[in-house]
Every structure is written in structure tokens, then in C-alpha cells.
């Protein structure tokens, strides 16, 4: 199964906001980047991803699950834009900062370390394992 990373500004939509949505989760709407949209089109229900606080915090804080595959984004009538629904699974035991990611040689090729602007991105199995390891999970 593929792994992913979702970025959100915590003052707009935070990890705690997602947790408050419960098992129904939340639509990951408002994405207007073709590469990020295409990543969501590839997602399958049950796949996991990291939740990353961007702009302030700059850290991976939790694990999410895809609970609804790609569908039209409810925030626009433009048919080009789709999104998935995600729900919170669990917080990481310790948040992993961007500084730590960039300092970890095993994560040198991680999309987050090289293209920090992409809001929805793939994470390799090896990168997933390293993040879990250094977080204490």
C-alpha cells in the first residue's frame, strides 16, 4: 500500500481539527495544484499518510487514513478538482520537525525535504519507517 503526506497550516486546519471530526474524517479540499490532485487520485481507501503542520510548526504530528477515495471537491464547481477524505488515526509519540528531516541522511530524497511546497505528496515505505523510528513509534 502506498503512503502519503498531507500538509496543512495549523491556523487554518490543524491535527486537532481533524481529530475532532472523528471516524467520518474530513474532506481534504481546496487543493489547486495538479500534482497534488493527481496524487489524491492515486490514493486507495485504507492507505495511510502523515499529517504535517506547515508554515508554523513545520512538523509531522500524526498519522491519517484515507477513508474515501477521490471525488469532486465540494469547495468548487470546477470539475478538474478532486479530493479524498481522511481521518485521524493517531498522533506520533513525538513530532518530527523539518529540521530533523533535512538532517537525517536516510530522508535526503524525501519529497518533503526537496519540494516543501507540494501539499499532498507520496512517502516511500523506507521514509515512512524512518519517520516512525525517529518519532519513537
TrEMBL record:
Organism domain of life: Bacteria
Membrane spanning residue stretches: none
All copies of domain EVE, residue ranges: 3-133
Coiled-coil region(s): none
InterPro entries: 5hmC_binding, EVE_domain, PUA-like_sf, THYN1-like_EVE
PANTHER family: THYMOCYTE NUCLEAR PROTEIN 1
Name of protein: EVE domain-containing protein
Species name: Pseudoroseicyclus tamaricis
Amino acid at each position: 500500500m502506498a503512503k502519503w503526506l498531507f500538509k496543512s497550516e495549523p491556523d487554518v486546519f490543524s491535527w486537532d481539527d481533524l481529530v475532532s471530526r472523528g471516524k467520518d474524517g474530513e474532506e481534504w479540499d481546496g487543493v489547486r495544484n495538479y500534482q497534488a490532485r493527481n496524487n489524491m487520485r492515486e490514493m486507495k481507501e485504507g492507505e495511510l499518510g502523515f499529517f504535517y503542520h506547515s508554515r508554523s510548526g513545520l512538523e509531522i504530528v500524526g498519522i491519517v487514513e484515507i477513508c474515501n477515495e477521490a471525488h469532486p471537491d465540494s469547495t468548487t464547481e470546477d470539475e478538474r478538482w478532486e479530493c479524498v477524505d481522511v481521518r485521524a488515526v493517531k498522533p506520533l509519540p513525538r513530532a518530527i520537525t523539518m529540521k530533523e528531516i533535512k538532517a537525517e541522511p536516510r530522508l535526503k530524497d524525501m519529497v518533503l525535504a526537496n519540494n516543501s511546497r507540494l501539499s499532498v505528496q507520496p512517502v516511500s515505505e523506507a521514509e515512512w519507517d524512518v519517520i516512525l523510528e525517529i518519532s519513537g513509534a
